[in-house]
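Record format v2
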Amino acid sequence: MNVTICTIGELLVEFLAKEANQGFSRPGEFWGPYPSGAPAIFADQVARLGFGSVLFSCVGNDAFGEMNIVRLARDGVNVNGISVLSKATTGSAFVSYRSQAQRDFIFNMPNSACGLLTADHIDETLLNSCNHFHIMGSSLFSFRMVDAMRKAIENVKSRGGTVSFDPNIRKEMLNIPEMSQAFEYILDYTDIFLPSDGELDYFGLNAGHHEQKLIDKLLRRGVGQVVVKRGVRGASYYSEKEEHHAAGYPVTVVDPTGAGDCFGATFVSLFLAGYAPQDALKWANASGSLAISQRGPMEGTSTIADIESFLRKQGILPTSSQLRTQG
Ligand code: ATP
Ligand code: MG
């Protein structure tokens, strides 16, 4: 099947604190600017795998915006849906790691160019070229953005397309009321749901809900596939008929930001392209592992060749010499 996926949301530059526990309360050194924004990383990963990828966003008329557009276009993303606004600056994020699992952010998003995106920026003709729409929960920070999402959901679904949703919850954004209201609405249209294990509780009616019960509830609600990301422990796939688990690969963690986005993009693209769910899961795990091995949120996106070479090194795929011996 021809796979063309669209995403809508933040396109930012990210600055990464050089030291662990550096924080933002005292002067320190940062790496960056790096191209970033969860939907943008997702879109970049889809394109690098060779599938159609359209990103709708807004940037300012500045060097950060230009760097992002040039980078996405180089990797094969269709950037015609990115508007350059003259009255706003490109969004930014600062990240500081406390440990590998915990990090703090300062986002300049709702007040930046991407925060001004409205449904009017979503071009119907471009939307008509897509048969899947991916939503990042981190993008649901304003009513304007939620309206834009609604337009894309209605368009893609009315043409028989599908929707995936990664809640991508950032503790810094949980007090935005638009976000929690939109989550419920979007779940009603979600075919592939991609939460992290830590995020599942948020979707349970009672805190402490058993994971399996919650997954069963989502499947009964009409979500076709639930894919749970488990960090170093890999990922799991659930549908009405099947359940698969894939262990994570042992890799050195350089920068975990972007792992979930690369994982999601790889799973969704390959699943839509017809890979068996257990294979899409293995390929997506490899994509997440490759992402955390590189510094910078979008620097670790992979091609199919990168993933297959990684899987051969892990012994998941046979090497050419093994194939010769078998043959
Ligand atoms: P993000 O921080 O990008 O939002 P996430 O919480 O959505 O991440 P994770 O579960 O952290 O998602 O990571 C996605 C995938 O990346 C995992 O399912 C796994 O395949 C891989 N991965 C993440 N962390 C590690 C790790 N420490 N070692 C090996 N693989 C990892
Ligand atoms: Mg995530």
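The chain has one domain: 4-314.
The domain at 4-314 is CATH 3.40.1190.20 (UDP-N-acetylmuramoyl-L-alanine:D-glutamate ligase).
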